[in-house]
Design brief:
- The complex is a heterodimer of chains A (about 625) and B (about 110).
- Chain A is mainly alpha-helical and about 625 residues long.
- Chain A contains 27 helices and eight strands.
- In chain A, strands 2-1-3-4 form a four-stranded parallel β-sheet. In chain A, strands 6-5-7-8 form a four-stranded parallel β-sheet, with helices on both faces.
- In chain A, helix 3 packs antiparallel against helix 12.
- Chain A is elongated.
- With about 110 residues, chain B is mostly helical.
- Chain B has seven helices and no strands.
- In chain B, helix 1 runs antiparallel to helix 7 and helix 4 packs antiparallel against helix 5.
- The longest helix of chain B is centred in the C-terminal third of the chain and has 15 residues.
Chain lengths: ~625, ~110
Amino acid sequence: METTPFIWPFTIGLLFITCFLVIIIGIWISSLSHIDKSRIIHGILTPKSWLALREIVLESLLHRKIFRKNVVLGYMHMSLALGWFLLIVVGHIEAWIHYRTFFVPAYKAIFMRYFITGPSTTLSGKILAASMDLLLLFVLSGVALACCKRLNSQLFGLKKTTRLKIGDRIALYALWLIFPLRFLAESVSAGIHHNGSLISQPTGQLLASILPVKSLEMPLWWAYSGTLGLFFFALPVSRYMHIPVEAVLIFLRNYGIKVQKRIGGYSRIQVYSCSRCGICLDSCQMAHVDIKDTQSVYVLKHIRNKNLTDEKLFNCLLCGRCQPDCPVGLELNNLRLTQRIESTKEYNSSYDYLKNGNVAISPQTEVIYFAGCMTHLTPAIIKSMKEIFTVASVKYWFMDEDKTACCGRPLMQVGQYEAAKKLIEHNRERILASGVKKLVVSCPICYKVINEDYALPGITVMHHSGYLLGLLADKRLPVNKLSLQVVYHDPCELGRGSGIYHQPRLLLDEYATLIPMKNEKEASYCCGGGLANIKIQMNERNQIRDKALDEYLAYQPDMLATACPLCKKIFAKSNKLPIHDIAEIVYMAIRQNISMTQDQTINKKKIEIEIWK
Amino acid sequence: MKDFGYTITKQRTIDYDQFDGRLLNEILEMEPSFKVCLSCGGCTATCSAGDLVSFNIRRMNLLLRRGETIELESEIRKCMLCGKCMLVCPRGINLRNVIMLIKKSIAKYKPVN
């Protein structure tokens, strides 16, 4: 077969990257656990593979999630990914038709305009050549947008863009150069051999009229092949590793593989799938206090480069606000937690003092009430819950009224899973020994760990928002709508952490008027109090809180409602807006209702003021 | 020997010429907010672990400043890291970080004997 020396930079680069990817992905997959491997084996011939392919087309090529964020940004990513993919596919189809065989070496398809010096004679050949020109134009528009984005990211709806390291820069500039060089090389060849199409032919003729195209042809093809080779060699040390690895990730994710509590093949695949697009930077509230180097994108980069420090690893609230925004769908919180477990595994804890005393409770007990450590700092919530239990005639056992261990979640959030296990086991035994089948928790932090990690067969674990809603549905609580305009702050651990958004809202709707907000549910703010961050200072927490409060205040509510004692404690310190837990609001309404029936003459508003005091 | 009920108290002298301040200095450098502790005891009063066993965060501060590393190590293990101390602290000291830093550094500076 005919060949020419300039194909070598490209061919060697392609061979290198193919071997590299096969080896590294092979190592990652072989280091998966046996269960995960069997998930792949059992999933590979099922519709899961089709779903994965569909996801690859929608997300890796069309970039649907980025389109939702910003149309121009989505177009930029789509033109580069889909455009380049189609250039390769259509280019190969063109080569297969021309050479009448499927066994065409890659360089023949990539540098086809150099090897085929005559214009296409068949109709299909003409259509293919024209579509190749249009595709190249499509990609070039994306490259132009990418250059603009580097200069001004705000045009693309991004407040910030990521900082690049040297490998990224080489790959980025190579990527930018590949397509203009290809266009110039093809145009110059078209100017000499008249083998161009819609765009390359007129451009070629124009270039031929003003430049010595014959002497330019070889240098341009060399430059094109060289930048392709350079891109392939820079790929393993650049963020563009996400292009091949993301496809593997999507398949594995569809087979049901998740990030485990240890660093393994799958967590590495996730880390390498990060495209460092920087979309997570925008949603991170740490930037409100000028902490700009601990965001998920940088932590993943440091994990990859093996230079992650504790200062960065632990300076995150784990609020999970960045996770729904990630276009690759990475498990950002779990990846960080895995690193925290690794970083703190040498630390010692001992809870020998925990003694399982006899749990003696009356057999009529309907529910166990677990307030949680934080709720003990906000006694109004405990008082409200106690009163509500009394009004609804519920027999309850207040499990942590006195001398009770922590739920274990704060330890888990800083990576101390082994230590947390001891607390979990202790509390679990007490719960099981009680024999009660319903557990009501007031703190979302406790709720998440009890619900997910306690393994309590036959016991319903509920956050009090859901439980109170149930009491209301059973008509065990009186209904009384207060004349209050309320904004609801979603606690991170209850909302994004446990997926409970509707129950608190339904409950609030019964007792007050809820004002809908822009940043709520998945996009809700963190109060700044997150226990997962052990590095942030209290004044910084307060600044994060104030920024969120400013937005809430714009809705001019009478009151801020939340469902978490920690959020309440943090917001209460600001003194800008009254803040109450939903249990308190329910209790307020019930008390007003009772007083109203006792004395109808008293002004309704007056009682409200009284309750406030 | 006949037991008259008297005990000999272990020597409690701390020789500050022999003081090993590495642990203390490292903690104060990594978490400067700990310098402003006024020993009010709010942390100890609210402590979940302190509710169950003799555990006193204010005493941690004392042990750390006296360089009593061995005792500090056995005491610090009792903390459940629930975070109440941090929320009640009038000086806004990041106590959970102090605890984690002590846990991290203690193995490094613990005397061999």
